[in-house]
């Protein structure tokens, strides 16, 4: 749906983006990741035509992107911008009409979302009367009033309590099921694992990783396994002998543990299970895949070491 091709952008002598290319598929949630100052917000602003790139171009559904395509985009910026003295309804009418909706359509859409989020009594409240989380929910509603085909959300979950984080995540999953395309810029790595199909990592103005979440985790796994068991930790360690290495352990109770083990040599997971059977009571066993937070930290650290070398 969106082709970001060889985008470069500098501000004076500071390079913000350096030859970045990304393909965003229709009906997917793409996680846009990167440390502060990596260039994520600059890229988002270029997509929204707030600023122009120095080099490169963007295509939407195969066509070179123009101002007219913006009606198909919903953008929730990290810097929240609500007019504090306006009511929720007036704010929705103002932003909805900017997106080309009639008053009637805005009111219909607003009624739908207020009912869905169970906040119909907020309609006549002024923005300044709302808590930070409530105001963010209103801004999310205003972002989707015109039913955009592409949603670009910059840190949409920050400031929400856990209940509302889950509410917004489920809403994004429903939107994806309806064919919406979503770019999610966030530091919340757990959310990336739970709802994103693919991820892109930008660091020091360059794209250093792109791929499906499952493939990224598979590529960077380290051959560790976790065993949840009952019995003696001494018996567990003795059973490992020289074929396996105990990496870490967690005590769950007097005789209940979770141990992380790494293979040595050509030993397999099946060899590990055979070694443990009869020595302890295995309750669960699984391969340990790196979290997206682990991947993020590892890749950024490696790039930092290379830059300093």
Write structural notes for this entry.
The chain has 309 residues and is an alpha/beta fold. The chain folds into two domains: 2-218, Rossmann fold, CATH 3.40.50; 222-287, Alpha-Beta Plaits (2-Layer Sandwich), CATH 3.30.70. Helix content is 35%, strand content 29%. It contains ten helices and 14 strands. It has helices spanning 40-47, 88-98, 103-116, 132-144, 162-177, 189-195, 213-219, 233-240, 269-276, 292-308, and strands at residues 2-11, 14-24, 29-33, 55-60, 63-64, 73-76, 150-154, 181-185, 198-203, 206-212, 224-230, 244-251, 256-263, 281-287. The strands form three sheets. The chain has a six-stranded mixed sheet with strand order 6-7-8-3-9-10, with helices on both faces. Strands 2-1-4-5 form a four-stranded antiparallel sheet, covered by helices on one side. A four-stranded antiparallel sheet has the order 12-13-11-14. A hairpin with a 4-residue loop joins strand 12 (244-251) and strand 13. Helix 2 crosses helix 3 and helix 2 (88-98) runs parallel beside helix 4 (132-144). The longest helix is centred in the C-terminal third of the chain and has 17 residues, at 292-308. The two termini are 39 Å apart. The model has no long low-confidence stretch (mean pLDDT 90).
């Amino acid at each position: 749906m969106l082709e970001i091709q060889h985008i470069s952008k500098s501000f004076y002598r500071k390079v913000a983006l350096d030859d970045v290319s990304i393909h965003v598929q229709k009906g997917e949630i793409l996680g846009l990741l990167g440390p502060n100052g990596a260039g994520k917000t600059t890229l988002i602003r270029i997509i929204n035509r707030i600023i122009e790139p120095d080099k490169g171009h963007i295509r939407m559904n195969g066509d070179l992107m123009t101002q007219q395509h913006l009606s198909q985009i919903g953008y929730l910026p990290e810097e929240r911008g609500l007019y504090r003295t306006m009511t929720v309804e007036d704010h929705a009418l103002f932003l909805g009409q900017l997106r080309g909706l009639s008053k009637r359509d805005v009111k219909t859409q607003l009624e739908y979302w207020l009912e869905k989020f169970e906040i119909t009594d907020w309609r006549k409240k002024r923005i300044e009367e709302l808590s930070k989380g409530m105001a963010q929910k209103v801004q999310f509603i205003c972002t989707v009033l015109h039913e955009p085909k592409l949603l670009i959300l910059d840190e949409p979950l920050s400031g929400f309590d856990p209940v509302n984080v889950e509410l917004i995540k489920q809403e994004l999953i429903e939107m994806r099921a309806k064919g919406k395309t979503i770019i999610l810029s966030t530091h919340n790595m757990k959310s990336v694992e739970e709802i994103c199909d693919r991820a892109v990592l930008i660091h020091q103005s360059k794209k250093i990783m792109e791929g499906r979440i499952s493939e990224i985790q598979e590529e960077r796994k380290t051959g560790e396994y976790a065993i949840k068991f009952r019995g003696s930790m001494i018996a567990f360690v003795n059973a490992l002998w020289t074929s396996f290495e105990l990496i870490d352990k967690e005590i769950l109770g007097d005789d209940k543990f979770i141990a992380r083990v790494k293979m040595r040599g050509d030993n397999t997971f099946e060899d590990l299970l055979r070694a443990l059977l009869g020595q302890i009571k295995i309750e669960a066993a699984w391969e340990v895949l790196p979290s997206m937070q682990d991947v993020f930290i590892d890749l950024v650290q490696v790039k930092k070491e290379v830059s300093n070398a």
